[in-house]
Specification:
CATH topology of the largest domain: Rossmann fold
Radius of gyration: 24 Å
Bound molecules: NADP nicotinamide-adenine-dinucleotide phosphate
Largest sheet: 10 strands, mixed
Helix content: 55-70%
CATH class of the largest domain: Alpha Beta
Strand order of the largest sheet: 1-2-10-9-8-7-6-3-4-5
Distance between the termini: 22 Å
CATH architecture of the largest domain: 3-Layer(aba) Sandwich
Strand content: 5-15%
């Protein structure tokens, strides 16, 4: 049911001419292609963007072109960044800071998995790799990138080390916003800032290596020096961000917890399962149910939404598909909205935070997580997915 206009364009000149004439008659496609021509080739090419109008709402967005490397080096020349924790974000942010030439040290539990991983990545014990408390003592900017549960567990020991003159940095609003539950109450005499990359640490690193920057948000919790905002933006650039959106600690954590439980992960998984099960209950084969639920979504249609927008995706599909989808999306929205409202309330009242702390601070949390992932791995839908992936065109 899906016709790729992009593929049509690439075929023969005759076909291209036909496709172009069809695009000329379709406003959404035309607009998307026009936009392609006006988009910046690299983030470096647009400077000084500070306020951007998003559908009528003006928002503050900073960009890395305002912070070239020389300026970062000058700005942070007296700082030592003590990056605590070397998991997903510690790895990505730490290596990017190091490659940017900044003075960064890592603080992790001696002998633990992260300690070993840091050594493999070239951090040297006693030189730029230290036990956590030692790193904090040496640092002027303390970047708390322990897991959220670990931030809570270690806070009583770490808090006294975050003394006046240092800056405290987070990549998630979780710990301070839910301080009644996490007990992480940042000192009031230091700047407390946030830069939260919108992606995993692996992506923070891979985009940096490609010469691009991940999008991040930034926020200020405490501003004792009057420079906290500027420091947050500069640090966001230093860790490898491209565009940096202004937010608050509260908004960052509420939207993040909500989004990952909703459309980003939990919601989409639930929707895939529901659709697949109904197809199977009605006699469709596993491969047909999978292809119509996941494969076409992830391989054909979702990339179009990501690249050009929802209207483009509708426009690129058959009239039959388009009519049905236009009729059914309000039904899904109306039925799902109460679930999203319940979810948002559960985030706001701290229930999701408490659940996360309870689960992730168990000593055997990795084993418990593995049990749940094993259940997903063994679901028919995802076992079918493994086979379908082998048959993709690129594997022919
Ligand atoms: N992952 C993402 O995609 C992402 C994206 C944006 C923001 N963030 C935020 O970034 C921060 C770091 O997240 P992450 O995903 O990078 O964390 P993570 O991968 O879960 O990192 C865990 C780190 O915490 C350490 N740790 C765990 N328990 C500890 C304890 N009891 N004492 C001392 N160290 C302990 C681990 O060290 P050992 O190896 O020694 O156990 C490891 O270095 C969080 O605030 C998170 O919300 C994450």
């Amino acid at each position: 049911m899906y016709r790729s206009t992009a593929v049509n364009l690439a075929r023969t000149s005759k076909q291209s001419a036909r496709a172009l004439s069809s695009i000329a008659k379709r406003p959404a496609l035309r607009a998307a292609l026009n936009n392609l021509n006006t988009l910046p080739k690299t983030t470096q090419s647009v400077r000084g963007l500070k306020k951007i109008n998003f559908a009528g709402v003006e928002e503050v967005v900073h960009e890395r072109a305002d912070w070239p490397r020389e300026k970062l080096l000058e700005y942070f020349k007296n700082d030592t960044m003590a990056l605590i924790g070397y998991g997903s974000q510690g790895y990505g942010q730490g290596l990017n800071l190091r490659d940017n030439g900044l003075n960064v040290i890592i603080g992790v539990r001696e002998g633990g998995a992260s300690w070993k991983a840091a050594i493999e990545d070239g951090w040297v014990p006693g030189e730029n790799l230290f036990p956590i408390k030692e790193a904090i003592a040496k640092g002027t900017i303390i970047m708390n990138l322990l897991s959220d549960a670990a931030q809570s567990a270690t806070w009583p020991e770490l808090k006294p080390l975050i003394t006046e003159g240092k800056t405290l940095y987070f990549s998630h609003g979780f710990s301070p916003v839910f301080k009644e539950l996490t007990k992480v109450d940042p000192p009031t005499n230091v700047d407390v800032i946030l830069a939260a990359p919108k992606g995993s640490g692996r992506t923070v690193r891979s985009l940096f290596k490609e010469g691009r920057g991940i999008n991040s948000s930034y926020a200020v919790w405490n501003d004792v020096t009057g420079k906290a905002e500027e420091r947050a933006i500069a640090l966001a650039v230093a860790i490898g961000s491209g565009y940096i959106y202004q937010t608050t600690f509260e908004k960052e954590v509420y939207s993040d917890l909500y989004g990952e439980r909703g459309c980003l992960m939990g919601g989409i998984h639930g929707m895939f399962l529901a659709q697949y099960e109904v197809l199977r209950e009605n006699g469709h084969s596993p491969s047909e149910a999978f292809n119509e639920t996941v494969e076409e979504a992830t391989q054909s249609l979702y990339p179009l939404i990501g690249k050009y927008g929802m209207d483009y995706m509708y426009d690129a599909c058959s009239t039959t598909a388009r009519r049905g989808a236009l009729d059914w999306y309000p039904v899904f929205k109306d039925n799902l909205k109460p679930v999203f409202q319940k979810l948002y309330a559960s985030v706001r009242d701290g229930s999701e935070t408490q659940r996360s702390l309870d689960f992730n601070s168990q000593p055997n949390y990795r084993e418990e997580l593995e049990k749940e992932l094993e259940i997903i791995r063994n679901m028919e839908i995802w076992r079918v997915g493994k086979e379908v992936r082998k048959l993709r065109p690129e594997n022919n």
